[in-house]
Amino acid sequence: MLLLRARRCRWAAILLAAVGCRADVPPVPEPVPEPTSPLRDAEVVGPIPAAARVLDWDISARLDEGAHRIDGHARMRWRNTSRVAVDRMPFHLYMNAFRAEDTAWMAESRGEHRGHAARDRGGWGYIDVAKVSRRQDLGDGREGDVVALGFHEGADPSVMEVVLDRPIAPGESVELDLDFVTKLPEVFARTGHAGRFHMVAQWYPKPGVLHEDGTWRNHVFTFHSEFYADFGDYDVELDVPADMVVGATGIQTGSVVDGDRERLTWRAELVHDFAWVADPDFVEYTGSHDGIKIRQLLPPEYAPDVDAHLQAQIATLDSMQPRFGSYPWSTITIVHPPSSAAGAGGMEYPTLFTTSPVYDRGALLGLLGVQERVSGVFTTVHEFGHQYFQGILASDEFTQPWLDEGMNTMSNVLVLEDRYGPDAWALRIGPLGFTGADFVRLSQHDAATLQVIDADADAFSPVVGGYGSTVYRKTTGVMMTLRNLVGAAAFDAALRSYALEHRFGHPTGADLERALRDGLHDRVAVGHRDPDDPETGTVFLDVGEFLTQGLHSTAVIDFRVHAIVNRRAQGHAGWHRSEAGVLIGGDPPLGDGAEGAPGTEGVVVVHRAGDFVVPVEIEVVLADDAVVHRVWSGRSPTHTLRFNQPVARVRLDPAGKLWLEHHRLDNHRVAASLVGEDGLSEPVGDAYEGAAIALLAGVGP
Ligand SMILES: [Zn+2]
How many folded domains does the chain comprise? Predict the structure, then answer.
C-alpha cells in the first residue's frame, strides 16, 4: 500500500494541480493476446515448494451493479499442513470492517483513510455469510451428504469461526462450501464502489493461516493491518453487466455474453488472494515485456498517463527480476481508479495493483527533478514491488509489516537507482540539495525514533503516527545504511539469496536477519583506523548487532564533532596570562601565524551522541590541505585523533552512508581559527536539512 499523510496529500495536490498539463490521449494499440497459463514457463518460475499450495478455490460471483452487491458462492478445499488435528477454522470477513462505526478498523481510523472519509451509513459495506457446509468425501471421487456447519462472528465482525463436524488430521484436506453476500462500501479505503466503478477486494471469506505448531493466525482487521493468507489456485466466474470492462488476478479464460449480462471466467495459480475490478468506462491498453502481458485499465481522463506507467513497469521488472528472482506470473494488471475513487489507489493484490495519476507532465516537478518521486509513476514502482514482498514471499503483514512495506520501499530506492543512477531522487536548488537518503532521514525527525520496526501492525498507534516513518522509511534507512557499510554487491547478493530461498515460503524477520548475517559472514571489515597503517587495526561491523539495534530497538545513530584543538605539541600545563592580561587555564594557545609551525599538533574529539553503536568514517582536512580518512568503531562514547599539525576541519560520515542518522548539522566543524575565513560555506551546505524539512517533509511512500 502507498501511505501518504492526508494533510500533506492535500498540500501536494494543490501544488501538482497548479503545474499539471496533460498530454494527448495515445491511440489504443493492438491488444496483446491473453496468455494460456497464469504462470510463466516452469523454468522461469523456478522451484515451487511442495508445501506452498494449501488452498484450492472455485468461486462464482454475481455483481448487482445498482445495489453494489455481490452474491457469491465459494467452494474451498483446504489442506492441513500442521502437525496437529483441527476441529475449527477461523476466517477473515474483511468487508465487515466497514459495517458499523464500532468495528476495530473504523474505531481506530475514526472513519478516515489517507484523507478519504467514510460517508453516511448508506455508503457502508459488509459481508454476510449465509451458509457454511461440508461435502462428505466417500472416496473414489464420490461425494456424500452435505453437512451444515455452525459458524459465528468474533467480538469484532471482521473475523468468524467455523466449527467442523469432525477433526481434520495433519495432511488431510477438507472441502467447504460458503454462501455469502458482499455489499461494497462507497470507496474510501481501498475497496468499494464510486459510480459504476467497482473495486472488489478482500470480498470473500478467507481462512486464517495455520502454522506448523497448530496455532492459527487470523487477526482482526485493524487500521494498519494488511493481509496474510496461504497460496492456492483459483477458478472464478464473474457475472457482470455486459458493458463492464473487467480486470482480475490471473488470466481470463473465457467469456459468454447472455443478453445484458456477461459471464467471465478467470484462473489464477499460486496466489494468496483474488481481486477484481469492473468499470464500463475503462479504456484498456496492453503491452508486454519479457513474456509478461501488461494490462492497464484507465478512465479516459488518465489515458495520457499510459506510457509513463508502462515504462515504469518495465523498468521495475528489469530492476527487480535480477535482484529478487523472476516474476512468476504471466500477467500484471495496472488499475487506474477514476478521480472519484482515489481512495482505491495505491494498493497491491496478486498480479494486479492500483496506481495513481501522473500529475506532472513536463512542468515544475520535472524542473525540480522529483517527478519520479511524487507522481503516480512512483506509485507504480511501489505497488509492483509488492508483487515480490507481498505476492511471492508473502510474509505475515500483520505480525511483521516491515518485511513487506519496508523491504519494498528499500527495493523502490534500488529500482530508481537502477533506472536513473544514484542521484535518482536528487533535488537541487542552487547551493541546496537533498537526495533519497535525505527523504529517509527527514522521516526520522517524525515518530520513527519512538517505535521499534519489528512490531506488529497494531503496535503503531495512529496518534503516535509512526507507522509510515518507521515501517516504510526507517526500515529503508536500516537496510540502506547496512548496504552502504558492507558494500552494495555483498548486500545485494545476501538479499537475493533470501528472496530465492523463501519464494512462496512466508519468511519471517528471523529468516531475513539470518540470510543477511550468513550472506555477510557475520562480521564485515569496514575499514582501518588509519588506512595508511593497516597495523593499527581493522574496524568491523557486527551484522547481527547492527540488525538488533536497527530492527529491535529505538536506538538512534547520532555522531557529532565535539572539538578541534590546535595547540603546541608539547607544552606545560598551568596558568598563563593572555595578551589581554587575563588568566587562562590548560595549554597555552597558539598565537597568530602558528598554524603549521613545527611543534604544533591538532587534536580532534568526536562524540557518539546516539545510543546506536556503528562504525563511522571521519574525514579530516589538515592545515596543509592534506585530507585524511579514518574509521572509528563507535564503541566508546568519544574518540580522540591526533595529528602532527593543526586541523582545519572535520566531517563525520562524509559519504552520507548512514541513512539512519538524521541530526547531521553537527557532523562537521571548522577550526575556530578558520571560522572567520570559511565559517559559512559548510553550514550553508548542510542547511538543506532545514530547507528540505520545510519543503517536502513527510511526502513519502
Ligand atoms: Zn506499500
Answer: 2
